[in-house]
Amino acid sequence: MGRHRGNHADDGDADPRGAEGRSRRRRRRGGAVAALTSAVAIILAVGLTGTYIFLNQSGCSGQDVTLDVAVSPELTTAVQGVAKEFNDQDYAVDGQCVRVSARGVASADVAYGITGGGPTMGDTESQVWIPDSSLWVNFVKENSGDGVVNDTGTSVASSPLVLAQPEKVAEEDGDEASWKTLVPTAAPGADGDDTDVRLVDPVRSSSGLATLALVSDAVGGGDEEGRAQLVAAIQALQEGATPSEEAAFEAFAEQSAGDGASPVLVLSEQAAARYNQDHADAPARVRYPDSGSYSLDYPYVTRTDDPLATRAAQVFRSALEEDAAQKRFQREGFRTADGKADSEALPEGQGFQADIPENLPTPNNETVERLTQAWNQFKLGTRLLTIVDVSGSMLEEVPGTGMSRMQVTTAAADQGLSLFNDRTELGLWEFSTALDGDRDHRELLPVEELASEGAETATHRQDIAAELAGLQPVPDGNTGLYDTYLAAYREMASSYKSDRVNAILMLTDGNNDDPDGVSLKELASTIEEESNPHHPIPVFTIAFGPGIDLEPMEKVAELTGGEAYKTENPAEIGDIFLQAFSQRLENQQGQEGS
Predict the structure, then answer these.
(1) How many Å apart are CA 207 and CA 245, to the nearest integer?
(2) How sure is the predictor about 24, in pLDDT bands with cuts at 50, 70 and 90?
(3) 425-436 sheet: strands from edge to edge
(4) Contact 386, 508 (CB under 8 A)
(5) b/e per residue, 309-329, with b = 16+ CB within 10 A?
(6) How many CB atoms lie within 10 A of CB 298?
(7) pLDDT tens across 369-405, in order?
(8) Eight-state DSSP code of residue 319
(9) Which terms are listed as keywords in the entry (predicted)?
(10) Rounded distance, CA 56 to CA 25, Å?
């Protein structure tokens, strides 16, 4: 203290303190010309172009320039340490001391506060913003225009995403770490594992959103075939999603200490180092996916048009880039922008590596929007009425399986239950002709939450599994398809829930052959008349067996926003089931509250 930095007016990206940090001059009596000459000499000597620094011989005085900096919470302590040293040295612009005040604000809060595009809490205003990822900067620019924030091109730190496992599990796992094997992505019924993936909700977290994008890329989630696998991935990831990093830490610690599923936590290197500091008795083991990773890049962003505040922000930006500041960040478990790490903060014994993994590109705005919508869509939960054909043709054997169509169908439907979490509401009907008096369908179980208490077993999920296992074809039964479509549509419309996706799944091996039922024309006109565009009820039909006329089923799908599928082999129902369910990714519009 006692000495003061000079003021300047910086109109470029050059170091705004360069000359000032190299020389100081005492004021001489009547030395105005000499002072100006000295300043010019300094500028020429250090080669500053377009940057003019005038030494303030009496130090900075008058009203301070306060620079409010909103920082991603995990970086806040380190930035506050740099800010304190910076303030102690009295850096100045236009003769006024720059006083930096840094506070932790969740990056999502700032981004949503600027755009109004999501939930936000607390004061999100600031002149400088250091989020944890450029994902948020791109989101703001896409939704509020380029002029709202100015990315200076400076990354003050970095931290790649890693996978953390309990140490014993990581040592026993001989497979290479991979985004593709992080979650179950096979069709229903495929052998899974007992891994429980933990991540922070992608709507609130860069690491969560980047994880979703990395998994989507790994399974080809952008194309039709991969979209079905992405559905399974999202379902699995949502089971382990937490609202905050602290909640993820707590859940991971509890599972690590237990005998249940083996947890995998997706987080940044720096977060893993913090977790291990707080859980030194049972630290996690870090693993790096073999295909590379995405790095949190902590961009330095300005949010002010005021010239004085802008120059003050440039001065502080330079302070954050200095060696002393960078070493401070490294001691906190961060890397420099070019990947240099502190081996004591990221110890090799915990799985950390000195070399930064291959850096995968930042997901673009289109990908982010698509995945965020998909995530939110599935968070709504599902109300699904499943209807199974029990007509006489279901007794026919499926070639090469030794099983009847009914056995193959019910097995696939039972396996499809694995797609749905316990919050899903599911109901079960069977249909043929005149099953219940004049009605072609019969309700076996109402649409209720799978985790609710069962009528015959412990849970509704177990009740459905038991009913599926007990389905028997009616030897002389025909296929009352159209009447059942209409009854199911009306049932779901009368019980519609706006906070969920309401849908119907029809599994059948035949065409409509109920001469006493409604015609296709009558069915179509009734659905058109009774449908509500604000209460969509998509109908998905999976038809199998020879001689299927898919056109009527496609008509119903077109009217309701669903889809119709055809296969010669009911053994393929499992894969088609996934494809049908993935149509939810295509039907974002029309959902209330979306």
Answers:
(1) 10
(2) very low
(3) 439-449, 425-436, 382-389, 501-508, 539-544, 563-567
(4) no
(5) bbbbbbbbbbbbbbeebbebb
(6) 28
(7) 888 888 887 777 789 999 999 999 999 998 888 899 9
(8) H
(9) Membrane, Transmembrane, Transmembrane helix
(10) 10
State both tokens at 254: 């509890």
- Does residue 385 contact residue 429 with C-beta atoms inside 8 Å? yes
Residue found under tokens 């991969």 = 226
Q: Are 68 and 125 in contact (CB under 8 A)?
A: yes
Distance CA 434, CA 515 (A): 12
Average pLDDT rounded to a whole number, residues 572-584: 70
Residue 199 forms beta bridges with which residues? 241
Question: For residue 459, what pLDDT band results from cuts at 50, 70 and 90?
Answer: very high
Rounded distance, CA 33 to CA 114, Å? 49
CA count, 13 A, side-chain hemisphere, 352: 29
Is residue 525 over pLDDT 80? Answer: yes
User: Is the pLDDT confidence value at 342 over 60?
Assistant: yes
Q: What is the rounded distance in angstroms from the CA atom of residue 117 to the CA atom of residue 139?
A: 9
Of 376, 550, 523, 517, the closest CA to residue 440 belongs to 517
Q: Return d(Cα 377, Cα 231) in angstroms, integer.
A: 11
pLDDT (tens digit per residue) in 430-457: 999 999 999 999 999 999 999 999 999 9
Q: Are 487 and 439 in contact (CB under 8 A)?
A: yes
- The Cα 542–Cα 576 span in angstroms is 7
Q: What is the CA radius of gyration of the chain?
A: 31
User: How crowded is the C-beta side of 227, counted as CA atoms within 13 Å?
Assistant: 17
Two tokens, residue 187: 């069709």
Cβ contacts of 390 within 8 Å, gap of 6 or more:
406, 430, 431, 432, 435, 471, 472, 473, 474, 477
DSSP letter string over 437-495? TTEEEEEEEEEEETTSBPSSSSBHHHHHHHHHHH----TT----HHHHHHHHHHHHHHT
Buried b (16+ CB within 10 A) or exposed e, 128-151: bbbbbbbbbbbbbbbbeeeeebbb
**Residue 591, pLDDT above cutoff 70:** no
CB proximity list for 422: less than 8 A, separation 6 or greater = 449, 450, 451, 461
Residue pair 8/311 in contact by the 8 Å Cβ criterion: yes
Rounded to two decimals, what is the model's pTM?
A: 0.71
If DSSP codes are grouped into helix, strand and coil, which group holds residue 266? strand
Confidence grade of residue 222 (pLDDT, cut at 50, 70, 90): low
Task: Tell me the β-bridge partners of 542.
Answer: 507, 565
**Which tens digits make up the pLDDT trace of 83-132?**
999 999 999 998 899 999 999 999 999 999 999 877 677 788 999 999 99
**Beta bridge pairs of residue 137:** none
- Tokens 């250090």 belong to residue: 46
Confirm if 167 and 282 have CB atoms less than 8 A apart.
yes
Residue 20 identity: E
